[in-house]
Amino acid sequence: MTPGVNTSADLEADDAPSPEHNIRPLVDTALLSDWRGSGKVVHSAHRIYEHLISLWAPGAIEAAHDLGVFAKLSTGPMTGDQLAEACQANRRAMRVLMDGLYAYDIVDRSSTDDGPAVYRMPEEMRECLLPDGLFSLVGKIEYDRQLAWPAWRNLADAVRHDNRDEVGELQLNQINEHNYASLVRGINFWAPPVVEALRGGFETLDWPTDRPASVLDVGCGTGLYSQLLLRHFGQWRATGLEAPHIASIAEEQAERLGVAERFEVQVRDFWTESWGSGHDLLLFVNIFHLQTPESARELLHKSKQALSENGMICIADHLVTGEQDAKSIQDRFAMLFAVSMLATGGGDAFLVDEYDGWLAETGLRRLALLDTPMHRILLAGHA
Ligand SMILES: C[S@@+](CC[C@H](N)C(=O)[O-])C[C@H]1O[C@@H](n2cnc3c(N)ncnc32)[C@H](O)[C@@H]1O
């Protein structure tokens, strides 16, 4: 096992994160009386208020990042005063910030009767909040600071006009290469459960994996999905298609994960340049939500040409099943992801029915739909 790479399959039952470590409520609605009757309005106001203060979480975490709090705490436990001095900040204000991070379960705090509180960063948080970890969220923090804050502030404008160009056509998502350089590192943590579910899908479909296979990872980002697959399937080779600045990130990471000999990145524009042919697995992870219906169709058309006879297309993305009553976690996340795409300049979370229609038009068909914590995986092959 490579240090820093665990999939949930590697976790012993006792190590599995317990659900109470999820995001915890900040409003004790159990204390609201009569929430079904005359207290309904007040109860609703509490719920809306809790949504509105979601802004506090990135505010506090990003301030600590900006101040260098996580870097300092990674060297060992510190008091608020020690942190204030190390980060050149005000003592009282630093204590307030640290208690906020403690409230969010980001740092631990131990207090004694006679001494000041001591803050410490759990090892798993260190991996997430410092820049060098494979699953670091620092790139996501940087991306949010560069792009997301102003984008969300202006969402109403996007709703007024939609993400359309001067001739009224829907446009693809407009994130630039500089922003992607941050973002792709900050979303690596999505990969392990997606790859685990994908492996389960191969097994369920009886799709042979114990043979040489060619993987094409379209818009591979850091390439983690194909790199994790290569670590499981020793006879496979993978090629990523990427923009130049991101390609070097993927190459370095392939070295780090020990799969560089079987992983290459080709600096190619996946719209205008060749994908080759005869690929056994085409991977599109977080690519379809950047599309319009027309460009999604085009990707499937190109896939059809590039896929081997018994090859499989894997689309891992935020797909909506549209089961109105169920409102599953995946659907709720996907619907909100669509809002985030609207805020950041294009893209959508498409319905599974839309995918099925595009697949059928292209001579392809859906083989399976799998759930993962924040994504669904649509597996497809030739019809
Ligand atoms: C949302 S990221 C997804 C990255 C990766 N698949 C993942 O899920 O971690 C989209 C990636 O597609 C790449 N990309 C977008 N348009 C591209 C194009 N026309 N040709 C090659 N790569 C492209 C971007 O540079 C970016 O790294």
UniProtKB/TrEMBL annotation:
<dbReference type="GO" id="GO:0008171">
    <property type="term" value="F:O-methyltransferase activity"/>
</dbReference>
<feature type="domain" description="O-methyltransferase C-terminal">
    <location>
        <begin position="214"/>
        <end position="363"/>
    </location>
</feature>
<dbReference type="GO" id="GO:0046983">
    <property type="term" value="F:protein dimerization activity"/>
</dbReference>
<keyword id="KW-0808">Transferase</keyword>
<dbReference type="InterPro" id="IPR036390">
    <property type="entry name" value="WH_DNA-bd_sf"/>
</dbReference>
<keyword id="KW-0489">Methyltransferase</keyword>
<feature type="domain" description="O-methyltransferase dimerisation">
    <location>
        <begin position="50"/>
        <end position="120"/>
    </location>
</feature>
<dbReference type="Pfam" id="PF00891">
    <property type="entry name" value="Methyltransf_2"/>
</dbReference>
<dbReference type="InterPro" id="IPR001077">
    <property type="entry name" value="COMT_C"/>
</dbReference>
<dbReference type="InterPro" id="IPR029063">
    <property type="entry name" value="SAM-dependent_MTases_sf"/>
</dbReference>
<dbReference type="InterPro" id="IPR036388">
    <property type="entry name" value="WH-like_DNA-bd_sf"/>
</dbReference>
<dbReference type="InterPro" id="IPR016461">
    <property type="entry name" value="COMT-like"/>
</dbReference>
<dbReference type="Pfam" id="PF08100">
    <property type="entry name" value="Dimerisation"/>
</dbReference>
<protein>
    <submittedName>
        <fullName>O-methyltransferase</fullName>
    </submittedName>
</protein>
<keyword id="KW-0949">S-adenosyl-L-methionine</keyword>
<feature type="region of interest" description="Disordered">
    <location>
        <begin position="1"/>
        <end position="22"/>
    </location>
</feature>
<dbReference type="InterPro" id="IPR012967">
    <property type="entry name" value="COMT_dimerisation"/>
</dbReference>
<dbReference type="GO" id="GO:0032259">
    <property type="term" value="P:methylation"/>
</dbReference>
